[in-house]
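Standup notes, protein team

Yesterday: finished cleaning the Microtetraspora malaysiensis set.
Today: Cobyric acid synthase structure.
Blockers: none.

Input for Cobyric acid synthase:
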Amino acid sequence: MKGALLVAGTTSDAGKSVVTAGICRWLARRGVRVAPFKAQNMSLNSFVTGDGAEIGRAQAVQAAACGLEPTADMNPILLKPGSDRRSQVVVLGRPMADVDAMEYGALKDRLRTVAVESLDRLRSRYDVVVCEGAGSPAEINLRPGDIANMGLAQAARLPVIVVGDIDRGGVFASMYGTLALLDAADQALVAGFVVNKFRGARELLEPGLDMLRGLTGREVYGVLPWLDGLWMDVEDSLALDNRPPAAASASGRGTLRVAVVRLPRISNFTDVDALASEPGVVVRFVTSAAELDDADLVILPGSRATVSDLAWLRSTGLADAVRERAVKGRPILGVCGGYQMLARTIRDDVESAAGLVEGLGLLPASVEFASEKTLSRPVGEAYGCRVSAYEIHHGTVTVDPTPTPTLVASAGNGERRAEPFLDGCRLGPVWGTTWHGALENDAFRRAFLADVAIVAGRDFAPAPDTSFSALREARLDALGDLVERHMDTGALARLIDGGAPDGLRTLPPGA
């Protein structure tokens, strides 16, 4: 088998990322040399490759589905929104510029060349490249400058399948409408559809599939059932709305309750997926001070807009609630931007241009934003455990090594020196680090949670054998199983090998 395929979707969060990962896993298990690709990704969940390039985290997981180390070519263009109108543009793993929507348009020709060259390099190295689209291919206002969906498909002559989320409702209308809004040349590359997240009686769905085939002249390549318990690394916070709810029985003393503050520009919230994998740990995303009351651990996660999100934290009353927790000696963890918020001061002349800003003052540290972004894969030790992680930040944190006055109740009276914690520090029940992914290290995660439980006064004891990497592999295998069992893999293989069939029907616009 040799070729390529573009997995598009009727909407954001339709399931493009997981379908792409599933096809990659299915092919890899057949011995096919396969790689993932996403030309342009807008996401605040990113990852650092072994050579220090920043790419979307979804592509890193898709690379794992292929049994590969991720590379910058797998996601050559990454957009990281800092506000509703401006984004940082990361090209081949390195920040290139901060632009607004109109300025970005001027870069499109250059970026299209970058994307096509990356895809060409992957196609020269692998038998099959499974490409993921972005948003919907029917964003007709954006089609002239498109480099992620039909623009890429045209440039590389890729056959396209369109994924629709039936759980949202209106899947037939969205699939038909997506096709009908494309021009004739684009429609000629759309080979068919995949229904995602189906639950119910298949026999009730089948007449609709037959009508869709008749109306469009295209195949339905599969109906993927809803799979409980599947939670893969996702691209943006939109998916948090569909995250499996926390278990209702969260009041026992053997349960550890974790509240993650859902910041407006939350980034790398996948850091807490490993916590949710632990038996007895309940993870919730929260947006109000009242939701912190029963939490045993509060996490301030990463942020693409630290100063702005800190202001939001204050406006909602969450900042006061977090400070009150510290005074009472209740556990708090800050990761990257969240760690920066816990410091005494933040000087930001780079990201927000706000200058000197007062932090929450819960850790004896100061932050200064640098123009050069730190991108690395550090290795260290904490609780006697080896920890490997990754860093993505402009803000550099400096910890005051001298004894310092503290508000933290369990840190003792008077002054106390902060203790080292990974690359950051700890003062009583408050921990801070810039390292993402640290909690994926099993031994470290268990030791940290055991310490949190002691500070929180809970009877929780981590399970001794939970392996997050094994859980992720099992989830990837489950996706591969979905493709193998519920898609027409023979037709899919022919599509990859031969491209879109000739003579596909063209629907008149607005038909």
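Follow-up from PR in the comments: The mean pLDDT is 92.
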